[in-house]
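Please review this one:
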Amino acid sequence: MTLVLLCIGWVFASAAVAMLPMRRQYVPGVALLIAAPVLIVLIGLQYGWIFAALGLAAFVSMFRNPLRYFLARLRGERPEIPE
């Protein structure tokens, strides 16, 4: 039950961060970006790989732009950041 509450809290926190101006989203967004894989692994351990795969799909869908940015940085590109 605690894991479910943590996941619900993560969803509400990400919705709140999404409403912030872009320049204020970076620090809490990175914290959420780091916390998500931990929660997804815990979901996989407690509820099974199907639910973990669904959580991963939701995570990638919500964070597709930051993930594209980090992927471009890993490839050595310099993507522009919106103001």
